Each structure stands twice: as C-alpha cells, then as structure tokens.
Amino acid sequence: MYAQTERLLEELKSFHGREERLRRIMRYSMYSVMFYRSSVYAHEKRVAWLVESQAPLLEKSFLTFDVRRSIALALIHDDPEIVTGDTQAGYKRQMREGELEALEEEERAAIDKLAQESPKTLSGYSYRDLLLEILELTSTEARVAKYLDRFDAFGEALHDIYAGNSVLTVSVVTDKGPIPIPPHFYREALPVMQMKFKELGALKDTHLFFSEPIVVEKLTPRSVFPQ
Questions:
Q1: CB 3.0 to 4.6 Å from 131: which of 22, 29, 89, 111, for a disulfide?
Q2: Model confidence pLDDT, tens digit, residues 98-152
Q3: Any residues with CB less than 8 A from the CB of 130 and at least 6 apart, and which?
C-alpha cells in the first residue's frame, strides 16, 4: 500500500547515519518522565504514510499535485533536528518574533550543513531544496505534508495519553510561561492551517484527516515546572 514511501526509505539509507541519528531524537523532550517515547524517525515515516494514503484524493483535488514529492517532504521534514535538536511546537508558539527569526536562521544553517554532508538528491529532487520547501511552505505539496505532520502529532498525543503517558495533560511552565498541552495545541493548529492556506481549506471535510478534529473527552491541563 505504501510502495512510494518504501522506495524513498530505501533510497534514504544512502544518507549515511541519518536514520540512526533520527532514531535517537525522542519526541516531547520537555517532559522528563514518560513510559515510552516515539522517535522523530518514526514520526516522519508515519507522516509519509498519511500523505501516500491520500494520494487519490490529492491528485483529484489538485491537477498538478506531485504525490511523490509530498511524500519525500514528509519523510525529511524534521531532518534539521539532527543538528538543532527538537523544539516542541507549543514552546515555539510562545516565542517572540526575534526568537522565531533566530530559530529559523538556526534551521537554515542546519539545512546547509545537512546538504553539504548528504547525497545531493532524493528521488531526483534536490535534498536541500526539499528541506527549504518544507521550512518555508512554498508549495501545495509542502503544505499538505506539514498539515499531516500536525495531524499525526495530534493523534500521537491522544494515543500517548490513553496508552498511559498522562504527563501529556500537563502544561509545562517555561521561561515563557505555561505552554499548551499537545492535544490542545494541535487541535487548534489544524483548522488554523486550513484558514491560512487556501489549498488546505479546499480539502476541508473531504476526508476524516481534513475534518475539524473533535476531542471527545475534556482534558483538563495542570501545570508543572520542567525538571
């Protein structure tokens, strides 16, 4: 079912050390105690599967949509974290404009470093161009991949909570104040993306993935300071 994803994963094995480094980056590093954690590598792969599962809808909705490119973008969208480490999305929301600009510059420097030490292309696409495209969200393919990135993160957060990682109902208090708990953050972020990008708005309610998510049980956050 996921033939295109598997072919790209096979090609990515030629990016020496990439998979091992991504497997070592654990999600939700701001939470010191969890029963288990998903890796960035697993997350990227899940997002690619989500994109490929929607190929018929995407090709029908957008006449020039390049499914293979969108899958490639999904598979490498967090690669700069190999250099920068993971910054939790809720924490980014609390950053000031200058801090966000500095973080983006750090990500661009990471892209340059990865591009220099990695194969130049992935499935015929420039690896560096793909990384910049998903950073800047300059294409429909990148916007779909980013939306499904957040959809996967929303599902991951709910799965973790109901599987025993109840710490994700905790709002970590940082130097910028309490950050929103992950399911609340992504529940709000998905419709915002659909309002911001017309292509994503056009997909609204065409599939469960593109419908407004509903949290069936109220999650009441509590606050703790990170250890």
A1: 111
A2: 999 999 999 999 999 999 999 999 999 999 999 999 999 999 999 999 999 999 9
A3: 69, 72, 73, 76, 122
Q: What is the pLDDT of residues 35-67, one digit of tens each?
A: 778 899 999 999 999 999 999 999 999 999 999
CATH class of 3-224: mainly alpha
Closest CA to 9 of 34, 51, 41: 41
Looking at the whole model, is its pTM more than 0.70? yes
Q: For residues 190 and 182, what is the distance between their CA atoms, to the nearest angstrom? A: 12
Nearest to 21 by CA among 78, 73, 82, 77: 82
Can you give the C-alpha Rg of the chain in angstroms?
17
Two structure tokens written together for 95: 């950053």
**Phi, psi angles (nearest 5°) of residue 125:** -95, 145
Count of residues in the chain:
227
- Cβ pair 180, 157 in contact under 8 A: no
